[in-house]
Amino acid sequence: CTSVILCKSVLVTGSSRGIGLQLVKELAERSDRPARIIATARDPDVKDAKKKKKQNKKNQNVIMVLEDVNSQESISSAVQEVQSIVGSEGLSCLINNAAINISTDLNTVTPDAMMTTFQVNSVSPLFAFLPLLQTSASQSTGMGLHRAAVINISSILGSIQANWGETAAFKAYAYRTSKAALNMLTRCLAVDLGPKGIVCMSLHPGWVKTDMGGPLAELTVEESVSGMLSVLSTLSEDDNGGFKDYRGHTLPW
Ligand code: NDP
């Protein structure tokens, strides 16, 4: 990988498996790795993982923090813990990756499925860590990963424009609407935080072989994540309020 990641700290939510886990692994293995890689996960086994990581040199600079993004209480305590880890430097890059996809078509969708999916996929990114990004942004100039960035892992399935014709076949009311809402959150944050030096963008990882993407997906987690890290390495002012895929192609809203 020829891209360079110039970033003091990265936090990835939902890093217990799939794309989140691969993001953490790949960041930790880079020679230009951020000084602090914070991996959050809701599984209490994360505490055991803390012990395990001591035996694993490659993951030595990965700090694990417990965070269930379906609980505001858990989010708030994770924010406090991360605050004490990053201190006065703040957080340079927040990757909102944790998500659920409850399979719901018109006949099976329930208010509960909608609300839970919204909390996890669209609401939680708004109520965590943003003050820590502002601390980081206030300490440098320019725009990009070196200063501060919010990366919302979205999906082409959240594109209103693309939900027509062939791609409309994938019916998932809760998931698709939650990702459309996340995309709007990206734009709202870009308007408010862009002028403060924080780049906010939505990033689609492609269709990836994970528990969520399934075995028929087009990409391995390695392919998706190395593509996304290349996109992040060139992050600039032009990306603020943008929606791109793992190849850096701009997607329709
Ligand atoms: P997976 O289902 O494989 O992993 C989801 C991750 O989110 C897990 O680590 C899971 O943790 C975590 N998570 C779910 N709910 C919570 C919660 N309440 N609190 C904390 N963590 C939680 O999904 P992927 O890795 O495939 O997806 C990652 C991101 O990429 C998501 O935002 C997804 O929408 C997006 N995406 C994926 C695509 C694909 O093809 N795979 C396509 C387009 C977008 P736990 O192990 O505890 O359940």
Automatic annotation (TrEMBL):
CDD domains: carb_red_sniffer_like_SDR_c. SUPFAM superfamilies: NAD(P)-binding Rossmann-fold domains. One of its GO terms (cellular component) is cytoplasm. Coiled coil: none annotated. It comes from the Eukaryota. InterPro entries: Fungal_SecMetab_SDRs (IPR051468), NAD(P)-bd_dom_sf (IPR036291), SDR_fam (IPR002347). GO terms for molecular function: oxidoreductase activity. Belongs to the short-chain dehydrogenases/reductases (SDR) family. PANTHER family: C-FACTOR, SHORT-CHAIN DEHYDROGENASE/REDUCTASE. This is Uncharacterized protein. It comes from Sphaeramia orbicularis (orbiculate cardinalfish). The lineage of its organism: Eukaryota, Metazoa, Chordata, Craniata, Vertebrata.
